[in-house]
Write a structure and sequence with these properties.
Number of helices: 19
Number of strands: 25
Distance between the termini: 20 Å
Length: 558
Amino acid sequence: MEYKSDIEIAQEAEILPIMQIAEKAGIDPSYVELYGNYKAKISNQLLKDDEDRPDGKLILVTAITPTPAGEGKTTTTVGLADGLSRIGKKVTVALREPSLGPVFGVKGGAAGGGYAQVIPMEDINLHFTGDLHAIGAANNLLAAMLDNHIYQGNALGIDSRKITWHRCVDMNDRQLRFMADGLGGKVNGVPREDSFDITVASEVMAILCLASDITDLKERLAKIVVGYTFDDKPVTAGQLKAQGAMAALLKDALKPNLVQTLEHTPVLIHGGPFANIAHGCNSVTATKTALKMADYVVTEAGFGADLGAEKFLDIKCRMAGLKPDAVVIVATVRALKNHGGVAKADLNKENLEALKKGLPNLLKHIENITQVYKLPAVVAINRFPTDTVAELELVREECQRLGVNVELSEVWGKGGEGGEDLARAVVKLCDEPNDFTYSYDLDDTIEGKLNAIATKIYGADGVVLTGPAKKQADQLKSLGFDKLPICVAKTQYSFSDNPALLGAPSGFTVTVRNLKVSAGAGFIVALTGDIMTMPGLPKVPAAEKIDVDENGKISGLF
């Protein structure tokens, strides 16, 4: 069989006018705002007008701890939705928007792969409808107004050494992690140390993804803490009178984007906070809109279940009043062997011993979903041609010991047809009652909530707060922020804060070196290990292989 790249498959596919997809989803044309022929935004008015319509079933797709071998979570999400459609279910997908940083870096795009993709793939992975640019503009407007306030007399008494608001750009650019600005004399501003975050780590992104409407958006933007005064009082965007202009920049970005899968299943793609440094879920408005559009909604959370799923369940579901009906945990035999110590070059060889060593990673994620959060789950093995019958049977046996079934997913090569068995299993799970619960109580202390996440979800012995983090915890408590949920910024490559600890490590602690309130988003960010809010490009960036010809046809995206 001739091998075709993801972008070749996407470019050869039949794509329907987006109005046909809206019609298939039952969306009245009055709610559809066209962005060309194949993309549209859906008015937030739809959610208000359909408030009394019953919600569909909510299916969360998560995964094992990621490895260089890849897990195919988005591919499985898309293929599962197409599989549900093929067995006669009305389904909508809700996904995050890709960031340009990973697209041009090492991870690649985020529109699925093979024959389980969302199209137009190039648009989605590049500028799409401009949402991320709007978020960056709103973020940087606030930064400009903050520095201008200081330059123009500093009536609020802001201590420039205690500014917590960073500028942002949607690119991996390590050169911008630390800098000095305002140089060149008095007319050019007030000199200070500064830094950039990647746009998807901005609190504005988190706010957009958690806001229910434009009024809530403005209220959240006004609560953003940008820094502290000389006497340690927080200064907000509301005090700088920035929220109105920021919301004006974001008014269209607040609307979910409608596209389609290769098999013409409706997809809402909206918002894209990273899961290792933010909360890792698409917007609440997109998820809730999808639940009104379909009987089954398939959504995903970023990276492994210890990051994306934990934040989806403990932050997003808690804030939005959502209750998942089923969880799909994606794994590959290859990735599990990698967790068992096999190098990437040797993953195509059968190795039951390494698979046994790596399986505890999957089993820990299963235990978290079924025993901590008390949700029904199924494991989806994203099948590779090199997987042997013995390897697949070993995974099945170990999962069934925990009462969880395993289904093979072959959606990369077969599209929705390869996801039909998984779809049937998910439909059965959705009909089971569940006792969904959170991993911690909001009334617990900041350290108590951190310990709950670390011990229950990561398998750690507990957390250790550095001296500065302890002071920050005391300050946040004195300011009344201690009852907020926690958003842990942690490496995606391990349950621990050390990316070298693969599998399901034990006997470790998680070190929290910094605590920062995202008051507008409504959570406390806890930075652990060496995690950074501005990634860097790899030695050989994906950007080196991306090109466009004289006809505007793009190549090299994956």
